[in-house]
Amino acid sequence: MSAALYLKKHEEKRLKGGHLWIYSNEIDSKRSPLKQFQPGQQVTVFSDANKPLGNAYINPQTLISARLFSRDAEMWLDRSLLVHRLKVALSLRERLFAKPFYRLIHGDSDNLPGLVVDRFADYLVVQITTAGMEAVREAIIEALDKVIKPQAILFKNDVGVRQLEGLNQSVEVVMGEFPEQLELEENDTRFVVTPLTGQKTGWFYDHRMNRARMMEYVSGKRVLDLFSYVGGWGIQAARAGAEDVLCVDASEGALEQMHASASLNGLDEKVASLQGDVFEALKALRADRERFDVVILDPPAFIKRKKDMAKGEQAYERVNRMAMQVLNKDGILISASCSHHLHRDRLPELMLKAARHVDRDMQLLEEGHQGPDHPIHPAIPETRYIKSFTARVLPVR
Question: Choosing from 125, 262, 338, 355, which is the catalytic residue?
Fold first, then answer.
């Protein structure tokens, strides 16, 4: 018989509404003492009235104590369920994308909490962020092999959130031989990526659709790509007909990859780079009276925790203001955020504040979201994290 996890009275409402998470203060610790459970153990969740709500895995050491993986109390997180969930996720991606470059599994949104899988054709990069998923890692490998039949699988488990779950950080090839460099294709543009050493899984597929829309604004224009990483925005701008592109990033290695990708697309003469802190770079560009027709601003998360809100909002306002100061009189600013703590309506408010600070008018032209290979779970706001706004910035008349 499986272990039972009992909730306090009325605490099943959120789960019944579609949510997957159970917090420690929602658990009836008298009927199901947390100390009796092992991190990653699978349990059947019951309401106070003894009604089964489904199966979850538990970690008694974390604030989010349990995560529901099935509403069927007879279904367990094993190879069979993983294969089924992978096939369901794959059917969506194959319907949407002609080539096998996408996020295959997006955690809670694909009903596999704690698991992320990015696909680079015949190579898979996996991140496991919870003890429950770590407990079935061998089943994950077997399921991926059965459904995708990849040449190699890389576990890129070097993210800090694993420490909260009591897990070690590591980067490990668990199947096949994983090359130092891979090629991917996005919006008919080719890129060189290095998942073994790059950020996260080596690429950010989440802005795919926003980068496609960006390409409508850049033909014949001078483009500045800030926080460019490996040039996902900038190289696609050059391929879409930008006159010239300057990519700015703090990482020398990322910019080297960017230039390799530019060469891959025959765009060496159109794309240049500037290595250094983006805020300092913007100061220098303004001092040199450099001006751009389009500025793309896709920074890392300035708000990683709620307590960082005030400081993070100041950073978003400041960088948007500085970006506007290097725009031509009738310029386009594409401003993005990956901070899920920043409300969607707040970013355009900060952009407007920045515009008024530099005595500019602003028109919002488009609003962008994460791509459909990063689906949003409607009951879990944290899964809706990408924000992107395209604005026209004008002199005051």
Answer: 338
Residue 205 pLDDT greater than 90, yes or no: yes
Mean pLDDT confidence for 31-37: 95
Angle formed by the axes of helices 252-264 and 232-239, nearest 10°: 30
One CATH from 3.20.20.210, 1.10.357.10, 3.30.450.20, 3.40.50.150 for 182-395: 3.40.50.150
Asked if the model's pLDDT at residue 185 lies above 60, the reply is yes
Tokens of 244: 């010239």
Could you tell me the two tokens for 52? 């089964």
Contacts of 249 (CB under 8 A, 6+ apart): 227, 228, 229, 255, 258, 273, 275, 278
In terms of CATH architecture, what is 3-70?
Roll (2.30)
247 noted as active-site residue: no
CA dist 238 to 217, 270, 274, Å? 11, 6, 16
User: Are 355 and 362 in contact, with CB atoms under 8 Å apart?
Assistant: yes
Which tens digits make up the pLDDT trace of 314-341?
Answer: 999 999 999 999 999 999 999 999 999 9
